[in-house]
Specification:
The chain is mostly helical and 99 residues long. It has a domain at 3-64. Helix content is 33%, strand content 0%. Helix 1 (3-16) packs across helix 2. The relative contact order is 0.11. Bound molecules: zinc ion. Residues 92, 94-95, 97 line the site of zinc ion.
């Protein structure tokens, strides 16, 4: 297998299983910083950029859950995250039963 084919296989695996690579990469970087640079432990988040596969924002759908997606664009406006309540329980004050 050539280098390019191996790189393509790794990229394909990474896109489908990002946590298998991101988590060990964070641990390795943290270990390197503490052991070789004698630095304090801090939470490290490893992220990749400039991936060849770029997903259009319209293409981000439920089938991409758990996958790594790379999006290119300009952020025009941001809003705070708001929760969407899909189920809610109520309790009666008098008899304490859940409604
Ligand atoms: Zn009641």
């Amino acid at each position: 297998m050539g280098d390019q084919a191996m790189l393509t296989n790794i990229m394909t695996y990474f896109i489908k299983n990002p946590e298998d690579i991101l988590q060990p990469a964070c641990l390795a970087l943290d270990h390197f910083r503490r052991v070789f640079l004698n630095e304090q432990r801090v939470k490290i988040q490893v992220r990749f950029y400039n991936l060849e596969t770029i997903t259009a924002i319209e293409g981000v759908r439920a089938d991409k859950i758990g996958n790594f997606v790379s999006i290119k664009g300009v952020v025009l406006k941001t809003f705070p995250v708001r929760l969407l309540v899909t189920r809610m329980k109520f309790k009666c004050f008098e008899c304490k039963r859940e409604i």
